[in-house]
């Protein structure tokens, strides 16, 4: 029970402390730009390549199912594109980002904690929430939505290519946006913004609570990745259920 309360409550407490410290101390924008590069720039190839493989596999699965039911996979193209924009693009891109950036943030902050660099920062009148956590949160809010857009583009491009080359059908059907409306974009946008907020907070909780030596850094890294990934799945489910409840 304690672990459940920590999982849900600790990132919320971390967010409150970070907002308060950022408002009081200001946000170091040079460090923020460095974190945008760390989260976004170093994750872009993982997200784009992962989403490209994901899009290709989805088309192959859709083709196998279409042969059994309707015989023409091209008619699934518009529904595929809507699902990619609303559900799969945001969720899978966020998970891929959580696996790399979550590990990076957790390991870096855990190393600073066990080496007493965080205590040294506080003794020199610094604030770890404003100086360390706030730049990562801003980077998450900027980087994860951008990565989701690039990942969705990569998945769409791979679907078009696989459909055209491997399945010998009109691949343009898989970028048909006739079923995509503003609500789909809103649902996808809410998911990536929430995940962009949650990933650095979960990683910061794991990293700043690390105590001990190298073993503690490893444990904090694992905890950060697991918490960030599970949080993204929970956010995806919560937003989807909320909009299904109001039938949007």
TrEMBL record:
InterPro entries according to UniProt: Permease_MalE
Gene Ontology MF: a single term: phospholipid transporter activity
GO terms for cellular component: ATP-binding cassette (ABC) transporter complex
One Pfam family from the record: MlaE
Keyword list, A-Z: Membrane, Transmembrane, Transmembrane helix
Residues annotated as transmembrane: 45-62, 137-162, 183-205, 225-246
Protein name: ABC transporter permease
Organism: Corallococcus coralloides (strain ATCC 25202 / DSM 2259 / NBRC 100086 / M2) (Myxococcus coralloides)
